[in-house]
Amino acid sequence: MTESGENTSWMEYHRSVMDLGPLSIFIRKLLNRSPLSSNDQLALSRLPHDIIHLAPDTNLLCEGDRVTVCPILLEGFVCRYKVAADGGRQIVALKIPGEALDLQSAYVHTADHDMYPITPAVVARVPLTELEKLAAERPSIARALIVDVLVEGAISREWLLNIGRRNAEVRFAHLLCETFYRISEVAGLPVTDFDVPLTQQQLADVLGLTPVHVNRMVRRLSEKHAIRRMGRRLRVSNMTRLLEIAHYSDLYLHRTGHEPSSMLDEQ
Amino acid sequence: MTESGENTSWMEYHRSVMDLGPLSIFIRKLLNRSPLSSNDQLALSRLPHDIIHLAPDTNLLCEGDRVTVCPILLEGFVCRYKVAADGGRQIVALKIPGEALDLQSAYVHTADHDMYPITPAVVARVPLTELEKLAAERPSIARALIVDVLVEGAISREWLLNIGRRNAEVRFAHLLCETFYRISEVAGLPVTDFDVPLTQQQLADVLGLTPVHVNRMVRRLSEKHAIRRMGRRLRVSNMTRLLEIAHYSDLYLHRTGHEPSSMLDEQ
DNA sequence: CGGCAACTTGACGTTGATCAAGCCATGTGG
DNA sequence: CCACATGGCTTGATCAACGTCAAGTTGCCG
Lengths: 267, 267
Fold this sequence. Notes:
globular, 9 helices, Jelly Rolls, disordered N terminus, 9 strands, three-stranded antiparallel β-sheet, DNA-binding, alpha+beta, homodimer
């Protein structure tokens, strides 16, 4: 979960595996859950797109918006959030590099939530029409996109359990475990350390807590040597400890590991 | 939200509109969000299936199960739930008549949660292969199924906001409002009164509260004349009051109202 | 170096959890 | 038709987790 600007080792690693241009990380992400022939991968890499850079906290999508373009996150972290009538904010999803940010817009044309980058972000924008054409021509691509949506749903369900039934400490640890697994997945190798790019305010909005209480949990997890505070930033350095605190199981992430190497034959 | 056995007026109303056999209510549900030609509707109604009756609290699906059949709920109420390591239960979705219970299984073959009927339930089971064949042949049906999945995702997100950021009273009121809208939708007309088929224990599992505290909220909402206690059962009788307590907006349900009458032309 | 935003800490309040006891509907068997 | 058993509801007393408020402190960027 390193700041997007920093181009850290695991990012570099990924790019070197198989270069399919800027969308390469997106294709790799899909490959983790769905088989795609090399022609499928090539077709995806040739999707027309432009690339934009976004500053943190600039709105990417607003409730009620109608959308004609599918944004794909290449670098940085983005969140979906909703606000209650009394102004309370809840972050309902965290998106990491390689993930499509708004596949639903292809089917449901008005957004029911807002979205903004948490770190500086780089986003590729693919016209929905092109994406739909490709999905219509290539069923395995359509399938891969749907699986992506379904896994996001599975994550929401786990978050419901997390917020509804786990106490602050375990809840926090669980979020860090999930983020670790998701990042390791796009990286293609287990990440050893990573820095959490969220402010304590944002962590509070994810976890359904107040910033003050998040701060207390940060201290608690530090004292248990599960995380470390590097200046103003949190570093996850002891996954074993975190996993046992959270009683974490990653079943719900539905990782299947379709390695690119094993997928080089045509459909 | 009347007990499934009772065959109440709004159920009857629905069946009389356009009789496409047992799956009729499912087709109507899809029509609420997606246009389907009468040929599409006919094709759906001819899906091979068997019909089973389920007693409450019998497991329908277990975490880790692999599935070959898509269950469609015809009568009664079913919930998805997850359990934490310490035994805490969280209901992560409520399914009402007309909804497909496990479309994800067509794409992600192991379940990440459990499912059981809350009331006696009637379920049609369609072989996944048949459903996939139909979706492949008829894009508008594929689309309708995906929209269904996406709306369930939107509901999860709203629940995250509900549990994460609203206090017990508002949270409870919000759940009742949502249920009202969803039931009215399949019914095809606004339902005036309905009875909540959940025990206070189950309400607690939905809301991330304890049964004791749910009970206190039941009393509070009764005192505000938003709901009534009929013996052991809750009756929602004053939607206006509930809507203002919850500050409810149904935007996230993505209702578009493709009336069956306006969809009689072929694609 | 100055200013700002984020973090930190302590004191105190409140919501909702826990525990425990009693009550009331509903269904069953005599 | 009544007795009684059972599961769910109700209630009060007490307690802990988390929220609120307010006043610092610290890292960070220009």
